[in-house]
Request: fold
Amino acid sequence: MRFLGLDSSTQSLTALVVDTDTGEVIDRSIAFGPRLPQYKSPNGFLAHADPRVKHSDPLMWVEALDLVLGELRAVGVDLGAIRGVSGAGQQHGSVYLARTIDEAGQWSASEPLVDQVRPLLSRATAPIWMDASTGAECAEIAAAAGGNDKMVAVTGSVAIERFTGPQIRKFAKDDPASYERTAEIHLVSSFVASLLTGTSVPIDFGDGAGMNLLDLARGAWSPQLLDATAPNLGRKLKPAVPSATYAGVVADYFIKRYGFAANTPVIAFTGDNPSSLVGMGATEPGTAVVSLGTSDTMFAAMAAPRTDPKGYGNVFGNPAGGFMALCCFSNGSLAREEVAKRCSLGWDEFARAILEQTRPGNGGDMLLPYFVPEITPRLPAPAPRWFGSADFVAGKNPAAAARAVVEAQALSMRLHSAFIGQPPDRILVTGGASKNAGILRVLADAFQAEIVPLRVGNSSALGGALRAAQAVEGQPWSDLYARFAAPDLDRRVAPDGGSKVTYEGLLKQLQQRLNDLVAETNAKR
Ligand code: ADP
Ligand code: XUL
Reply:
């Protein structure tokens, strides 16, 4: 049988079809920047004078959904053979509607969906996970909830700028009239699922845990946190549901336009990271995953929720049941791209610079690669810092710059993910940058762990397709993983034991420099 997974991520929307009989996988992506230039979002978000503010136009995601389905059809995929759909969205981003999709979602097949969704928006833009502008709201929510320790105990995370609760509070404070006329608030995941069914699809536990609103133990919105966040918020959110919830069927619009079969089931969508946990075959505790997308994340399934005493890490729902821990770094691909651009390096040259032209430790050259506000550690404003030789600091050593950005990222990941548990000796990798052999080499050495890419890229969209397959066909996860989440053994990278001592030293040095940078930033506030 065939299943469709969708992933509405920061920079692109991907659709991926699996065939559980033949093992075949077909995917297509719409990159927002090049394909939808009218939205003026080359990296998936709108320009803003304040670097802390990062919003996207939700209509861009609506148009991309039509485009990607059209493209699947154009390459000969018979969407009438799809037996179930699920998917994922970039986490934390929120969409505000003046009418619920239950009320307004009888989409007419004769008019583009984007024109039917436009009049429903009560807020023209959607704040996304990169937004760091809600520091005041985080403090207010945490204070009203009894402090950040209480927030962690209930929700698995301290009040954090990018999480949806503080974003909702900011909207309610800045534009109370528009907030009041908002009938329904969606995450990106539940929004795309709702477009697909033409009904209001609830938020799942996986993505809902990224809102600073979900009581993890009860699997329900916390009444106290709803109150601490914004007036009447409980009325604007449907109750959260387990990820495997049947959410409805594909709307007539998609049947008429793209040839889906009547009554094709849609399973609740989840966050891109929980979805990747499935796409990587890592829903059982014991396997660590690093995702190198727009953001870099490191995550792993957990039997019981374990929280980060430093307040950086988060706990989300595991779509297969239980929980997952996650650390998120906003200076992921965007920082690597910034360095590559400044140094005029293509990705192949970037990899060669690491593999052939530089050595572990980078001869003492170190970069704190914070070109946009950072989540881990928390830096509310860009703060790149260059340490080492004069040429390097002056930006005249492209090879060292390439290694420096990746070494700092890998070591910061090691440092901040320690709360998740035992240091991993094997890490699965995914995301756009996992194609880069230079980056994998540094990860292997910095963690002293074997790095294993999977054969299928797009783990988040794959996770959507596998979740649909599991919900409809009911086969064990392990069978699906054996078939679709197989490691690409030719590309795995073993650690070089000779670099271990160098990286231990570098780790301590990085920790000190990060502590200094955070202290400097806090002193300026
Ligand atoms: P997201 O899902 O967050 O939109 P992806 O996982 O699709 O992101 O990754 C996109 C990023 O991957 C691009 O921004 C680009 O910087 C990076 N990328 C693509 N190819 C390479 C490569 N060969 N080496 C390093 N980075 C790459
Ligand atoms: C996770 C996070 C990002 C987004 C975008 O907490 O903010 O990883 O999900 O990928």
User: Anything to note?
Assistant: The chain has 21 helices and 21 strands. The CA atoms of residues 105 and 195 lie 7 Å apart. The two ends are 56 Å apart (CA to CA).
